[in-house]
Each structure stands twice: as C-alpha cells, then as structure tokens.
Amino acid sequence: MSRPAEFTGRRPMTRQLAYVVGVVAVAGAASMIPAALTAVIYQEWLAAAALFASAAITCGCGGLVAWGFGRQGELTTKEGFAAVGLAWFVLVAFGSLPYLISGAISGVTDAFFEATAGFTTTGASVVANPGSLSHGLLMWRATTQWVGGMGIIVLSVAVLPLLGSGGVQLARAEAPGPEPDRLTPRFRETAKRLWLVYAALTGIEVILLALGDMDLFEAFAHGLTTVSTGGFSTEAGSIGAFGAYTQWVVIAFMFISGASFALHFRALRDPAVYVRSGEFRLYACIVAAAALLIVGGLWVDGLSVGRHLRHAIFTAVTLVTGTGYFTIDYSVWTQGLQILAVGLMFLGGMAGSTAGGIKTFRIGVLTKASAHRLKQLVYPDAVLLTRWDRRPVADPVVRNIQSFFLFYIMAFLGGTFLLAVLESVGGTGTDLVTATSAVASALGNVGPGLGNVGPGGGYVVITTGGKWLLSFIMILGRLEIFPVLLLFTRYLWRR
User: Fold this and answer.
1) What residue spans of 327-394 are helical by DSSP H?
2) Which among 175, 157, 117 has a CA at the least distance from the CA of 361?
C-alpha cells in the first residue's frame, strides 16, 4: 500500500503547480488595473467596470488557489516546465474576460484568440477596426503585449519573493531564448535589471512618439506594443496611419527590441559589446540583407525604390523581429517577395529579446554544426568543435538546438495541414498561401500573414476551429515549443 506524500518525502506536484499558477494569475490581475484606470480617466464606465470586475475575478481565483494550496518548496526543473505551460493557458483565459464582460468581442473563441495574440505578442487580431474599441480596452490590448513581451513569470520573479529561487526554473522554461542570460549571480536581480531596461526603452519611445504626430495615449499604447515586438495598434492601418517620423522611430525601436536586453544592459557601461557580439552582428546582417532583398525585389518589379525604401526597411524589421506592424500591404507584392516575407517570419531576433521565431543564436549554431557534419563526410576521423563567439558550444546544446529546429518545422507543417483541413470542414476553405502564412506567422509570433490574413485583413475570416488551433500555435511559439509539448507527455507527470 502506497504511503502519503508527507511520509515518503515526496510532495504532490499538482499542489506546487496550483500555487504557481495562482501567483501568476494574481500578477495578471494586477496588470489589468492600469487599463481600468485609463477607462476611468476617459469616463468609459462600461469598460472600467469590465476591467475592474475581470481583475477582481482573476485575483480572487488566483489568490484563493495560491492560499489554499500554499507554497510547497522550491521548484524542480520538471515542475518549472509544467508550471509555465499551464500558467500561460490560464493567464490567457483570464485575459479574455475584459473583452467578454464589456461585450467588445462577442464569443469565447474570439476573446480567447485576442488575448492569446496579446500575451504571446503575436499581433494577430479579430478586431477589424481597433479604433472602435474604448481607450480602456485598447490599453488592455497593449498591456497584454507589454507584459507578455518579457514574460509575466519573469516579472513575477522580479517583484514577487513568493517563488523563491525556484523562479529560475520558471524563467528557464519561459524566457524568450535558448537560455536566460544572467547579469548577476541571483536571478531575481537579473530579472529586475532586464525589466528596468525594458521599461526604460518603453519610456524613451513613448516620449519620442509623442513628439511626432501621435497624441500621448497613442504614443503610450504603441510604446508598449513596439518594445514587446507585439504589433497591436490603435489604428486599422497600423503604423501606416502615421507619418514618416513616427515610422522611423518605430523602425529603430523594433530593431532595438529584437536584440538581447541583457546586451543592452551591458552596453550601458561598454557600448563596444554590440560589435563584439557575434549574435548581434549576425542579427544586424540578417535585417540588412532582408531590407536589401525587398528593395531589390521592388526595383525589379518597377516600383520606385526611393518612394518605397522606408516601407521596405520597415517590413524587413517588422518581419524579422516578429513585431507585426505594417505600413504597406505586402500581401499584394509579387510571389517572390511574398515567399521572402514568409521566410523572414521564421528567423526572429536575438536570444533574450522579445522577438519570436527560431532566434539568431540557434540559426548561427545550427549553420556551423551542419557545416561541420558536411565536412566530416570527407574527413570522418576529424574532431570538429562547434564554436560561437570563439567559445565552444557543448554537444548537448547543439543537440537541443537541432531538436528545437526539428519540432519547429514539424509544428509548421502539421499546423498548416490541420488549418487547411479545419477551414475546409468549416465550409469556407482557404488557399495554401493563407494557411501557410497564418501558421508561420502564429508560430513566429508575427501577426499578419498573407492572403486572407494579410495586413489590414485580420483573422475574422478564420473559422472557430482554425482560431483555436492558431491560439495553441501562438502559445507553442511564444514558449518555444518544449514547455507546451511536455504537457502532453507521460514522463512529465510521472512521480
């Protein structure tokens, strides 16, 4: 006969997970307050009531669960992965409440999709005209992306001592990159510094945008969704609704946000770290090459390069970093440029940034490791060591990157097939361009795709089944595959 956990020395994993999810829900409730206060300032009483009610429900449920189960000690690696996967689904569910309670978005599916796109910084939306929403709900959309950019769990580790050193396991599973980069021996201090850089960049961009043709509210909303590489705008025309100055400011901050925030912090003391970083050099080269290819493609198509240069650079940066803003409808470009656009959705920014995609670090290491394997076909006895920034990369890290890439491509192919099937069963059907770009965009946390979901089109046309699938894929891409897939394995839950 099995003995209770208190006698065997083993704690129930479900109690630990429930506590962490409860703490994260409370943090999510706190993030609703600024949006609620915004609604009060603009005297939008329905939106304010919906946001305050949503915060109360979320805080009540999360607090009750956290208090009821209590802290069970430090998190193990297995518990960290499980907690992150579950917490994000729960957070998105609660995040959809403001839309439902206010009636701004009708239907659980659309509200969940919008909240998912927010927290995963994808920028895909079912709202055809964001300008029709109240200021409070627009602020909530922007807040979900800002909080989701660096991660609600990393925020919890930074400001809540409740998780203890076990928060490192959460950050390892949730941080946007192959491995969280420590700036200090204590991860909580590292998280605080990263969030300070994150907040400082947001504040600087807000000021610069307010100096242009945006009012203070628009500047604040776009500041939140640019630094998070989210892409939610207050206008149906996205950044294309604003002037050249605003577009150049957004280009600069999208590029900055696609780089590592730990690198930005180190650059405060030594700006030369940008030049010494091999990953930053590769990231900058990818963005520059993408811009040149788009400019070249537009020139071949007979368009004025001078007139479209800003749009080409903007599109290259927004696609590589997965921000999802747009100034021009690139879905009407020629097929060659459309293929390039989808390809750029896979890349992503640097590890430790808010960008989605595969990440520059993985691309660099994967390329070098593959080149070594090719060389070993000719020199089978050669011992070839994969190096990055002149430092050797351990074989387990290389294998982890190879596994990630394999799962990423499998998720893309499987998601495209399932979306096409669901759209066909739903009766609307969808073309290959729409299905392919929608899945690539969701997995890379970009936002707009091509075809029926191109810039300015939105995801209203996608069926209910397709929206649930894309919501799952967005979370899969934001958490970088493994924490979500592990939820469906037996060995994660085996005691």
Assistant:
1) 335-347, 360-376
2) 175
| Alpha carbon distance 313, 298 (integer Å) | 12
- The whole-angstrom distance between residue 239's C-alpha and the CA centroid of its chain comes to 19
Helices 77-95 and 152-159: crossing angle in degrees, nearest 10, is 110
Angle, alpha carbons 261-265-270 (nearest 5°): 130
Report DSSP letters for 158-183, one per residue. Answer: HH-GGGGGGHHHHHHHHSSSSS---S
Q: DSSP readout, 208-219?
A: HHHTTT--HHHH
- Are 230 and 140 within 8 A, CB to CB? no
Reported as a single tens digit per residue, the pLDDT across 97-156 is 999 999 999 899 999 999 999 999 998 999 988 989 999 999 999 999 999 988 765 655
Amino acid at 266: R
The rounded distance, in Å, linking the Cα atoms of 391 and 367 is 16
Q: Six-digit token pair at 34?
A: 């600024």
Spatial distance between the Cα atoms of 350 and 12, rounded to a whole number of angstroms = 37
> Number of helices and strands (H, E) in the chain?
24, 2
pTM of the model as a whole: 0.89
CA-based nearest residue to 177, from 378, 415, 356, 445: 356
Beta-strand pair 391-392/387-388: antiparallel
Residues facing residue 387 across a β-bridge: 392
Cα 21 to Cα 90, 160, 471: the distances in Å are 7, 13, 19
